[in-house]
Amino acid sequence: MVSSDCTSFGGAITPIRLTLTHSRSYIEQLKHHLPVFSEISSSSEQIAGSEDLLTEIFLRLPPKSLLCFQCVSKHWLSLISNTHFRRLHTRRNATSSASTVGVFLCRHPNYDFLALNEERISEMGRIYGRLSDSRGSKVVCNINSCNGLICVGFKSDDAKTDFYIYNLTTGHHRFIPVPESMVVKSMNLAFDPKISDDYYVVCVWFSVSENRLRFSVYSSGSGIWRHSNGHCNKVDLCSYGGVFWKGAVHWFSQTSPFLCLQVDTCVFKSMPSTNIPEGQWYRNIEYFGESGGHLHLIEIHKPQDIEFDVLELKSDYSCWFVKYRVNLEFLTNLYPIMVNQEVYPPEDYNFPYAFSTLCFLTDEENRARVLISLPGKIVVFDMHNGMVKELADIQPDSFRNFIGGARYDCFDAYKYVETLAFV
C-alpha cells in the first residue's frame, strides 16, 4: 500500500489521502505481460534505429504529416528533408488516388479552396499567406496546376505580370522570367514526377508582329525558353484550359481541331478531335482534364441534356470513346433549384437545367467521382455506389445573378495534390 498527502486550492489546507493497492493476482498478471511490453519496446527501438525501416514507413505517409514529423528529432529532420528521400516519395506517390486532396476555385476576385474530405469551403487565406512574399499588393490573374505544383501570375498596377511556380505543400516557390516580347495569353504547367524532377512551363502568347498565337516552353532544368516553329490562328482555342498528359499539353477548341504540343521537343503532334454535332456549328465542351492516367472530356450536345457521356482518349491517340454514361436527372429531385424554371421563367432562360461538371476523378480501382456545381451548392457524385455528398454552399452576389454568381464551371477549378516535389 502506498499513501500520499496533497493540498487543495483556495488557501485551505486539506489532507487528501491517495491509496493505491496492488493485489497478488495483479502483480502476477503484470509479470506475465512484461515480456510482451519488452518485445514492443525492443521492436520500437529497432525501427527508430533503422533508417531503412523508417524510410519505408515515411514513404507511405502523406506530405503534410511528414512536414510535421520533421520536428520530432534532428534524425527525422535529416531523413525527411534529404533530397533523395523527397524525390523517392514524390515519384512513389505520384499516381496515388489519395493525393488529390482538394480543388482551387478561381473566379476573380474570389479564390477559394474546396477540400474533398470536408463539408465546407475553407478560405484560401492560408494560400495567400504562402504567396505573400511574392504577391504584395499585386492581383492574382493566372492559375494553372499540375501534379502538386501551381503556376500563379501576379499583375501589378502597370499591367506587368510576374509568374511564379509554387509548391504550396512545402511553401517553396520559383520566379519564371518571361521575355518582354511575349504577350502572355496563358501559362500551362507540365510536370510528371515519375519521369523527371524537372517541370516545364508552356506559354501560349500572342505575337503582335505576326498577329497569331505562338507557343514556347520553359524548362526548370535548363532555365531556358525554347520556341516552337508552329503557330495557331484559332481565335477560339481554349489556351487557358491546357491539360498535361503523356508528355504533352493538350488544348481543345469549340469549332476547330484540337492541339497537342510535345513539351520535350516543342513540336506539335496530331490528336483526334470530337465531332461537331450535326446541325450545330460548335462543340459544347463542359469538361476537359486528366485523371487516373487518362485524358477525359465531357460534351453536352443539347442545352436540355442532363444525361451525358464521359469520353476517354485512347493511349495511342487513335480515337475518343465512351468510358462512362452519367444521368443526373435524380439530382433534380434532391435539388429542385437546378431546374432553371425555379429561378427564371422559361421564356427568359433557354437552358432547363443549371449545373456544371467541375472535376472528374478516377482512382486505381477505376472508380469514378464527379464534382458538380449547382446553383448554391457543390456536390460530389460517386458513380460507383450512387452516393451524393454535399461539399460546399456558395452564396450568390445577388438574386438576379444567382445562376452565374453561385455556380462555377470546370475552367474555374484546378486540382490540388500534396507533394514534396522541388521547384
UniProtKB/TrEMBL annotation:
CDD domains recorded? F-box_AtFBW1-like (cd22157)
- The F-box domain covers 49-89
Question: Which protein is depicted?
Answer: F-box domain-containing protein
Originating organism: Solanum pinnatisectum
